């Protein structure tokens, strides 16, 4: 399927500080997500690229990566949720790796936003397991926003801990119209400015293998000859 592309304008205390693009693509039983955040101005010049792969039904994360690029260096962080080995594998480089027991169906930051878009209208609060902590999504109610698409009705959600706010269009496919996110201890606001379609993702995570149990084929039993 084609890629949904949502572009956002970033601001801090009313001043523009950059842009962000969120991409979503459904591929069979999985969903690929990507966020590219480009900062400038008071927070310095920095690019943050995040990628995620989700199960369409669930939902929970199969893999997540984050790459931070600034003037002096490039840093990369990767997570793999391996149900076959029962391990969560984390890496910050060839010499900095760790493994943890995979005991819960964990979510990642991009998958969390995708999950909020898909919440049933009957859900008032939901707890989402994430590596290191659980995040609670709480529905606050509806409001009207003036957006680049005109006036839109939005459901408002707050996330704990952190206190970030997510404003989701009440009409399908439930675009994120506005959100606040913590960055370097400050809350950045993102406002939707454009929606477009692309043919494919510019970057992606390796396709995780499905957890399939191996089954042995039974050989048919030979029938004994009737000697009577």
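^ Assign residues to that structure.
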């Amino acid at each position: 399927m084609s890629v949904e592309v949502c572009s956002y304008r970033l601001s801090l205390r009313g001043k523009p500080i950059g842009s962000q693009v969120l991409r979503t693509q459904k591929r069979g039983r999985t969903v690929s997500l990507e966020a590219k955040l480009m900062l400038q101005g008071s927070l310095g010049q920095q690019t943050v690229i995040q990628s995620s792969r989700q199960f369409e039904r669930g939902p929970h994360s199969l893999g997540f990566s984050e790459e931070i690029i600034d003037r002096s260096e490039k840093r990369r962080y990767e997570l793999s949720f391996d149900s076959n080995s029962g391990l969560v594998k984390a890496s910050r480089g060839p010499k900095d790796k760790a493994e943890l027991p995979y005991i819960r169906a964990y979510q990642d930051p991009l998958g969390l936003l995708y999950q909020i878009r898909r919440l049933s209208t009957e859900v008032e609060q939901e707890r989402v397991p994430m590596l290191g902590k659980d995040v609670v999504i709480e529905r606050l109610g509806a409001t009207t926003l003036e957006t680049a698409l005109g006036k839109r009705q939005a459901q408002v959600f707050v996330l704990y801990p952190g206190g970030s706010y997510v404003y989701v269009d009440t009409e399908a496919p439930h675009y994120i119209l506005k959100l606040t996110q913590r960055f370097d201890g400050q809350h950045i606001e993102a406002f939707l400015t454009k929606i477009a379609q692309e043919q494919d993702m510019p970057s992606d995570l390796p396709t995780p293998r499905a957890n399939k149990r191996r089954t042995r084929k039974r050989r048919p039993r030979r029938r004994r000859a009737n000697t009577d």
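Residues 109-117 form the longest helix (9 residues).
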